[in-house]
Amino acid sequence: xxxxYDISPPISPSLKVWPGDTAPSRxxxxxxxxxxxxxxxxxxxxxxxxxxxxxxxxxGPMPDGTPAPSIDEMPLEHYLGPCIVIDADVARGVRVTMKxxxxxxxxxxxxxxxxxRTGTFPxxxxxxxxxxxxxxELVEAFAERGVITIGIDTPSVDLxxxxxxxxxxxxxxxxVAILEGLILAxxxxxxxxxxxxxxxxxxxxxxxxxxxxxxAGFDGSPVRAVLRSL
Length: 230
Known about the structure:
With 230 residues, this protein is mostly beta strands. Helices cover 8% and strands 23% of the residues. The chain is built from two helices and 13 strands. The protein has helices at residues 136-144, 166-174; strands spanning 4-6, 25-30, 40-44, 52-54, 80-87, 95-96, 113-117, 133-134, 149-152, 177-180, 206-209, 220-222, 226-229. A nine-stranded mixed β-sheet has the order 1-13-11-5-7-9-10-4-12, with no helix packed on it. A two-stranded antiparallel ribbon has the order 2-3. The chain has a two-stranded parallel sheet with strand order 6-8. It is globular. It starts with a strand and ends with a strand.
């Protein structure tokens, strides 16, 4: 049977969000424990909580000046379909480049979706600002090879203190979709040969299921991101 990997952190008050953003909270309006007929809750949180998809209008407008799509306008194909997980051997606080990847991009047929594991944001309940990010040249290289979605195990595809957001701008230019905040520890790598990583790697491919909510006009959405081995 296929293996399932839940790559989403729990959304709870203990989840750390970007400093200054809205942390998750729950207001209980009705509760069966108190004798009410039903339990009814209100959720308040940033749409960039935990595993989430960025809408291009989060970092738009488009290069030609037109409005960038909101998350409900993004094609679902970006978030559903064949996927691989690639390890990046990088230190904290640096951008991932092609040479950091454990895969030869010129020697493999890439699926449309790629998830990059840096290991630089290991605990979603502790916000460390020195996580790794993506080099814009890497985004463009993947786009040239037909990749339509790139995910990462950090809160952002740009570095914490980045103001000009070069990676986000590369995503905007290329039309590649962003997934952030993924939990990729324990997922087999797709890049290493069997026996190299000790994690069951060896060109493992997955189905990615990470559909955003249809939030009209919003700049992002939490996703329940899951990988199913093929």
